[in-house]
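yo

u said u wanted the structure for the complex thing, so here. seqs first:
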Amino acid sequence: MSEHYFQEYYPDIMAHCYGCGRLNPQGHHIQSRWEGDETVVRFTPEPYHIAVPGYVYGGMLASLIDCHGTGTAAAAAYRAEGRSMDSLPALRFLTASLHVDYLKPTPLGIELEVRGKVKEVKGRKVVVEEWIVANGVTTVRGEVVAVQVPEGMVEALVNGEGN
Amino acid sequence: MSEHYFQEYYPDIMAHCYGCGRLNPQGHHIQSRWEGDETVVRFTPEPYHIAVPGYVYGGMLASLIDCHGTGTAAAAAYRAEGRSMDSLPALRFLTASLHVDYLKPTPLGIELEVRGKVKEVKGRKVVVEEWIVANGVTTVRGEVVAVQVPEGMVEALVNGEGN
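structre next:
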């Protein structure tokens, strides 16, 4: 299981996300995995994901925090229920709030490591703490409050009643 | 002046941003303008800027808040000095922190209005309050803490000493 990335298990109808959808040809294809009790994304921004010359665009970094946050929340929810991410019912999370602190400029042109850790679970809300490491230096800290999508809504989307 | 958008006045070297750089062919080309004492972006996300079917990706909305926040901070700084954005020295801001609350899903396929207002100025820091309106409904609220880039750093970038 741990070789697979979380977003691989999202139902097709929920796999179009510009940030992490495997079915979005124009998207970023952010891929999250477990690494012990933490989660990780390894991602090399494209040369055009630029802020000022030499540095990564803040909105791209916010996107990494966003999708890795909801992915981590989902993975943690499955883990808490002791079942694999390809089992049903599908558990999916949406972002309720996103916070990003840009501690230092993040260099462009290298692989970044986005790390995540579940900070708190309150009912259907999961708070995920994250940080981005570039060349061994933490350049960004972020937090996502993710909310579980009601099961009925996931089913409605899967059954084509979502639009 | 008010017909022009803020990002039009950024020095070329600072006009490559993936969110708002006029010189980034792959970028979003976010364009901010004054409207009285508020600032505004009108932006229609592309069909592939999707979260789940029918709704806009949260990272795209965060990008709108991000670039409109730094743009608003810069425009407000020029206005405070009583000079136009094409005058020197160039005043540019970077994002220190970004907060986004997703109040409701934001519908995809229509023009969004991103509005901004300067909430606080503390020395070189400007706090910008923002909200996104879709079909007359506020779907997102955000806040950017923007920090003025030291003049010497802008000059260094313009003179090609930035890398």
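The radius of gyration of chain B is 15 Å. Strands of chain B lie at 32-35, 38-43, 93-102, 112-122, 125-134, 137-148.
cya
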